[in-house]
C-alpha cells in the first residue's frame, strides 16, 4: 500500500503489550481447550431484554434516520440528571455530548485539550488504550506512576513535577487496580490542575461499581468545572458494551467544540440506541446496583480466597470489576505468571505489565465468570502461586 501517516502507525506503539496472552487464550478456546476466561472487562450477562425491546420499539417507530449530533435532547437531559445526582455538580443538557462509547469520548476529549506535539499526562497503571488514544489525537503521552506502595493513588508532588503538558487523564474507580480515589487524592489533582492550568479528563465509566466508600468526581472540586471533561458510558453500568453509548460532560463551550468534531467523525449516534439509553437511565440507581451486584459478590469471594495466605495479595479492591493481584512472591513477572497459569491451569488473566510499569509483577483478574467457577479459578491461581513460591524458597539459585 501507499505509505500511511506516522500518526496512525504510531497508535499501537512498540513492543509486546501482553495481549499476546489474550490471543493465545483465544486460540486455545478455538481449538476446543476449556479455558477460564478472566481477561476482558465484560459482564457475564448480556444486555437486558427490556432495553433491547426499547431499542427495537424506537427503531420500529422511526428512530432510524440521522439523529441529533450532540445527542437527542432526552438523552442529554438524562445524562445531565445522572451526573448531577452522582457527583453533586450542577449539570445541564448543554454540558453533555453523546459519543459512541467511552473510548470515543476519550479520543474526542484529547482532540480538544491540545495541539499536535503537546504532552498529555496519564496515570500509570492505566487502561491499555490510553497511550494509543493520546497518540491518535496527535499528542504525546507521559505516564505518571501511581505506585503500589502509595496504594496506586497518584501523589500530588509527582503530578506537580511531571513535564509541561496540556492535560491529565485520571480514572477512578480504576481499571486495572480497583482503587477508588479518596478526597485527599482528588483535592491534590485539582490543586495541580489549577496551578498548572491543565485540563483534567476524568474517566468515570466505573462509577456504578463501588464496593467501599462512594464515588467522588474531581469535577466537584473548586475551579474544576471549567477545566474538567468527564467521560462516562453505559457499557459497564448497564451491561451495554456492544451498544457503544457514552458521553463527555464538560463546559458548554467545550461541548460546542466537540460537536464540531462529532460532525466530521461519527455524525451522531443511532437514534434507536440513544432512545434505549434513555430507557436504561430511567431505570435508576437501583437497577445499576443490580448490574454491579455480581462483581460485589465476587469481590467478597476474592477476599475470602486470599485470606489466610500471603503469597498473593490484592490491591485495595474498592471498586470496578477487577482484582489486581500482586504475584511478586513467586519471583515471576506478571507475564511469566500469567503464562504458567494459562499453560498449567488453563486460566487466562492479563499481565500487570499490560497496564504499565507500576503494575509489573501483578496480574489482573476480571471477575467476569459465575461465582463458583470464579472461586474455583481463583483457588487454583493461589495454589499455583503457592507452589511456585515454595519451589523458589527451596531452589532460589536455580530460579534466580
Ligand atoms: N475506560 C476504562 C477505564 C475502561 O476500562 C473502558 C473499557 O473497558 C473504557 C473506558 C471504554 O469503555 P466503552 O468504550 O465501552 O464505554
UniProtKB/TrEMBL annotation:
SUPFAM superfamilies, alphabetized: PLP-dependent transferases
Span of domain Aminotransferase class I/classII large: 35-381
One Pfam family of this chain: Aminotran_1_2
UniProt keyword Transferase, yes or no: yes
Gene Ontology MF annotations: transaminase activity
Swiss-Prot/TrEMBL cofactor(s): pyridoxal 5'-phosphate
Class of this enzyme: transferase
UniProt catalytic activity: L-aspartate + 2-oxoglutarate = oxaloacetate + L-glutamate
EC nos: 2.6.1.-
Keyword tags: Aminotransferase, Pyridoxal phosphate, Transferase
Superkingdom field: Bacteria
InterPro entries: Aminotransferase_I/II_large (IPR004839), AspAT/PAT-like (IPR050596), NHTrfase_class1_PyrdxlP-BS (IPR004838), PyrdxlP-dep_Trfase (IPR015424), PyrdxlP-dep_Trfase_major (IPR015421)
UniProt xrefs under CDD domains: AAT_like (cd00609)
Database matches in PANTHER family: ASPARTATE AMINOTRANSFERASE (PTHR46383:SF1)
Family in the record: Belongs to the class-I pyridoxal-phosphate-dependent aminotransferase family.
Name of the featured protein: Aminotransferase
Gene source species: Rubellimicrobium aerolatum
Amino acid at each position: 500500500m501507499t505509505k500511511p501517516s506516522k500518526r496512525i502507525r504510531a497508535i499501537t506503539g512498540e513492543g509486546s503489550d501482553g495481549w499476546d496472552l489474550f490471543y493465545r487464550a483465544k486460540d486455545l478456546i478455538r481449538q476446543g481447550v476449556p479455558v477460564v476466561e478472566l481477561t476482558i472487562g465484560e459482564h457475564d450477562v448480556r444486555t437486558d431484554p427490556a432495553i433491547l425491546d426499547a431499542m427495537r420499539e424506537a427503531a420500529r417507530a422511526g428512530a432510524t434516520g440521522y439523529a441529533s449530533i450532540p445527542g437527542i435532547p432526552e438523552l442529554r437531559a438524562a445524562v445531565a440528571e445522572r451526573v448531577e445526582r452522582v457527583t453533586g455538580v450542577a449539570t445541564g443538557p448543554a454540558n453533555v455530548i453523546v459519543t459512541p462509547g467511552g473510548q470515543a469520548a476519550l479520543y474526542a476529549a484529547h482532540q480538544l485539550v491540545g495541539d499536535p506535539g503537546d504532552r498529555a499526562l496519564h496515570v500509570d497503571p492505566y487502561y491499555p488504550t490510553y497511550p494509543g488514544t493520546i497518540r491518535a489525537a496527535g499528542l504525546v503521552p507521559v505516564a505518571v506512576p501511581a505506585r503500589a506502595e502509595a496504594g496506586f493513588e497518584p501523589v500530588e508532588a509527582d503530578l506537580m513535577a511531571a513535564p509541561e503538558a496540556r492535560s491529565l487523564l485520571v480514572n477512578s474507580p480504576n481499571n486495572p487496580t480497583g482503587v477508588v480515589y479518596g478526597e485527599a487524592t482528588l483535592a491534590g489533582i485539582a490543586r495541580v490542575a489549577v496551578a498548572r492550568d491543565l485540563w483534567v479528563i476524568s474517566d468515570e465509566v466505573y462509577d456504578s461499581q463501588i464496593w467501599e466508600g462512594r464515588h467522588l468526581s474531581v469535577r466537584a472540586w473548586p475551579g474544576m468545572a471549567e477545566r474538567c471533561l468527564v467521560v462516562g458510558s453505559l457499557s459497564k453500568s448497564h451491561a451495554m458494551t456492544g451498544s457503544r453509548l457514552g458521553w463527555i460532560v464538560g463546559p458548554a463551550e467545550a461541548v460546542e467544540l466537540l460537536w464540531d468534531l462529532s460532525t466530521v467523525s461519527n455524525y451522531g449516534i443511532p437514534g434507536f440506541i440513544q432512545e434505549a439509553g434513555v430507557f436504561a437511565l430511567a431505570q435508576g440507581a437501583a437497577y445499576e446496583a443490580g448490574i454491579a451486584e455480581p462483581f460485589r459478590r465476587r469481590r467478597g469471594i476474592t477476599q475470602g480466597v486470599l485470606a489466610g495466605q500471603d503469597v498473593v495479595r490484592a490491591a485495595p479492591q474498592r471498586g470496578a470489576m477487577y482484582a489486581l493481584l500482586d504475584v511478586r512472591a513467586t519471583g515471576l513477572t506478571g507475564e511469566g505468571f500469567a503464562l504458567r497459569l494459562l499453560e498449567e491451569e488453563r486460566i487466562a488473566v492479563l499481565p500487570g505489565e499490560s497496564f504499565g510499569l507500576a503494575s509489573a509483577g501483578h496480574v489482573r483478574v476480571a471477575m467476569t465468570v459465575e461465582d463458583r467457577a470464579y472461586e474455583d479459578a481463583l483457588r487454583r491461581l493461589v495454589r499455583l502461586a503457592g507452589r511456585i513460591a515454595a519451589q523458589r524458597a527451596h531452589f532460589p539459585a536455580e530460579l534466580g
